[in-house]
Amino acid sequence: MKIQIINGPNLNLLGVREKSIYGNTNFETYLEELKKRFADIEISYYQSNVEGEIINKLHEIGFSYDGIVINAGAYTHTSIAIADAIAAINTPVIEVHISNVYKREEFRHSSMLAACCKGVIAGFGMDSYRLAIENFSA
């Protein structure tokens, strides 16, 4: 089984930005934990702050992987283009968020991507990624 994790803008700063919301752990450290926990799954990771690069990655892997876990960051709330890319591919996608977006600013309560995704997981910290991977491996 092959799972791709895609993180969007500013998620390269996990562990150093807004620790009260996102915690103290950088994603690379957490990724190693995920890979150990799911040793039988090939987990790939991609991060970009650029919308078009995220779309290109979805196109690249969207017909050959078993699942995609995407945290599109702020693009969640603004990107029709990423939503269209998710709708265009065959690989199921789960949208994740580290924070509970519904406890935050109102503009974060709306997702352009959710309707194109298999599901949405939010508010469980980094564990949101684990929960998504468990869904694909169940």
Automatic annotation (TrEMBL):
It is an enzyme of class 4 (lyase). InterPro entries: DHquinase_II, DHquinase_II_CS, DHquinase_II_sf. GO terms for molecular function: 3-dehydroquinate dehydratase activity. Keywords: Amino-acid biosynthesis, Aromatic amino acid biosynthesis, Lyase. Its EC number is 4.2.1.10. Pathway: Metabolic intermediate biosynthesis; chorismate biosynthesis; chorismate from D-erythrose 4-phosphate and phosphoenolpyruvate: step 3/7. It catalyses: 3-dehydroquinate = 3-dehydroshikimate + H2O. Pfam families: DHquinase_II. Substrate binds at N71, H77, D84, I98, S99, R108. GO terms for biological process: amino acid biosynthetic process; aromatic amino acid family biosynthetic process; chorismate biosynthetic process; quinate catabolic process. The record marks R17 as: Transition state stabilizer. The active site is at Y22 (proton acceptor), H97 (proton donor). Homododecamer. Catalyzes a trans-dehydration via an enolate intermediate. Belongs to the type-II 3-dehydroquinase family. This is 3-dehydroquinate dehydratase. The gene is aroQ.
